Model the fold of this input.
Amino acid sequence: MSFSVTILGCNSALPTSARHPAAQVVNVSERYFLIDCGEGTQMQLRKNRIQFSKINHIFISHLHGDHCFGLIGLISTYNLLGRKSDLHLYAHSELEKVLTPQIEYFCTNLDYKIIYHPTNNVSNSVIYEDKHLTVTAIPLLHRIPTCGFLFREKEKPRHLRKEMIDFYNIPIRELQNIKAGADFISDSGEIVANYRLTTPATHSRSYAYCSDTEYSEAIIPAIKEVDLLYHEATFLSDLVDIAKKTGHSTAEDAACIAFKASVKKLIIGHFSSRYKDLSQFTDEAKKIFPQTELAREGKIFDIMS
Amino acid sequence: MSFSVTILGCNSALPTSARHPAAQVVNVSERYFLIDCGEGTQMQLRKNRIQFSKINHIFISHLHGDHCFGLIGLISTYNLLGRKSDLHLYAHSELEKVLTPQIEYFCTNLDYKIIYHPTNNVSNSVIYEDKHLTVTAIPLLHRIPTCGFLFREKEKPRHLRKEMIDFYNIPIRELQNIKAGADFISDSGEIVANYRLTTPATHSRSYAYCSDTEYSEAIIPAIKEVDLLYHEATFLSDLVDIAKKTGHSTAEDAACIAFKASVKKLIIGHFSSRYKDLSQFTDEAKKIFPQTELAREGKIFDIMS
Done:
């Protein structure tokens, strides 16, 4: 079962020739979730051979152009490609107001439905849920209402120890309960503890996307111990004043959050276009949190079970 | 004095990983004019090292997304870069209606003026003029109101034959008239014919952009004998029915127009994304008009004096 993140864009507001604005795809068992959709995202999807049709859910962190200017192009392309299935957009409620007139003008006869899911930018809240996964919106600290997104696999069933199931001759109807952690009580009233019948469940993986935001420890409980954290690092720490003023973080800020949240791995991105050499970002972050990697376009971060 | 066209995007509505939607830059003596602005144009400008600040005039052929979805990103970037000078947009009058709400939402405190110049989509009309250049909008035949654009250098002054000017001892005040073609009348009443005093002016160059359009001989008088014609060729001629139905041309159509208009050179572009191998387009066009070249991103077409 795959769980990976593909970076489509890693730059901040001003794109460069080599770095696109924010966009990435989370692949959970070949179902693709798009996070942010800066200008050029549809070209980046093609370049990275990600099948458009597998995207049914798009999460927009906030309504700054570098996070959503690519939406209208993608929506229009879906229409030209004959899309029929619903497209779900999770974003600030104002997205619908801004996007609707464009869609009405440019996408005549839209043949599929766009379903808006306004995010709550005040408290953590589950905005998406299916059999295997939840997505929680986490309010961030930026100049306008902004949400991060936490993708978390649901708890998985424990693994049955087949030899023990046979040994106690446990009927099939009990197995679901046992996988969920229940003990077994035999007809004679004997209690067999669950740990004798099962081994622990496979680890439930998690990924948190936190961009754009200034340094904010308020997010730490929500992202505690995630397998992978993407945290913006628009500036290096010599420009911490500009970072604060513009509602952004430095590489050091991102690393501090990763460290304090005890995450397993950190990706930093959303770089200001003033920086050509990005190695300075990892140099700065790794002093605090060694498991840091740069977001680079086309890079895929796999999260192992 | 440069006069060149740089291709930034050469594809039709569905961009591919290698081909962006419509955009190109006309460089006339280091003043840059942008024609069409599909999604990703600002990244293509950077990639091709074209200075943003040199663009003050943008010409939009029509309001299909693949020709204008890049506008909001470019306008926003100009604002972030601190632009102060006016930006002139030449397009169908509805552009203002569609673009204004986006600008108001995404570009707070726009620090420069956007000046809209609605195009007349009924008859040829000069929509831009400066000391050296005119731009004429040429109505095309597409599903919605669409204009091509003809860039033409103004007639240049004839070259003085210095030895003859000296020989007749012609006063400086007369030279402008003579460069403009006037004969010289000496104090004694002798008439010296202009052709004895001058050599012909340097050729005035011209470039016509015709996209999107189906085959239409109505444009031929306007583009007659231009140095360079860009004509859309969305399809190969086996799909001529689809071309007609969608208001587009085939490579053969484009070549026929080029041939009948006796242009010097033809560029074909706006390719449907269904075609991977574009050499078929030149094969088809060259049978009718040998001086055909493919539009490819980053390619610069120089027009010599």
Summary: Chain A has a mean pLDDT of 96. The longest strand of chain A covers residues 3-9. The interface with chain B takes residues 13-17, 20, 39-40, 42-43, 46-47, 49, 63-65, 69-70, 72-73, 76-77, 80-81, 94, 98, 101-102, 105-107 of chain A (CB under 8 Å). Residues 94-106 of chain A form the longest helix (13 residues).
